[in-house]
Backbone:
């Protein structure tokens, strides 16, 4: 049972890293979408802290946030922002699946793979900066 909090803490740290990657944007639609992406990422991070003992709840939060991020990317009207938001959403869905897969307590503890989430965060920052 101790393995889940370690995994959740790692996931929260990744969400914070992604949140720090989102910066100011250009046109109004793009700026609004980037602001919403930042807010969504912040909410995911806060949920990770508050749902530390509820891996199923956290998995659901990651999954629903991924859907929200995809819509925010579409709303931007910018192909780069949309693509980056889709990548971040996929990374969140992957984290959701990892948490769900480990809920039975079997298997060795492992930190979530941060590569795709960090890369998506960099892409969001770059897309929003342009």
Residues:
């Amino acid at each position: 049972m101790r393995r889940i909090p370690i995994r959740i803490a790692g996931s929260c740290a990744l969400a914070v890293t992604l949140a720090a990657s989102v910066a100011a944007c250009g046109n109004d639609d793009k700026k609004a979408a980037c602001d919403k992406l930042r807010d969504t990422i912040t909410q995911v991070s806060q949920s990770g802290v508050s749902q530390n003992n509820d891996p199923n709840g956290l998995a659901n939060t990651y999954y629903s946030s991924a859907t929200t991020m995809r819509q925010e990317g579409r709303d931007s009207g910018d192909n780069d922002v949309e693509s980056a938001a889709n990548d971040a959403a996929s990374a969140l869905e992957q984290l959701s699946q990892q948490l769900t897969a480990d809920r039975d307590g079997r298997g060795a503890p492992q930190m979530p793979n941060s590569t795709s989430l960090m890369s998506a965060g960099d892409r969001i920052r770059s897309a929003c900066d342009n």
Notes: Confidence is low (pLDDT under 50) at residues 20-25. The helical segments are 3-21, 28-50, 55-75, 79-101, 115-129. The radius of gyration is 14 Å. Residues 3-104+111-129 form one domain.
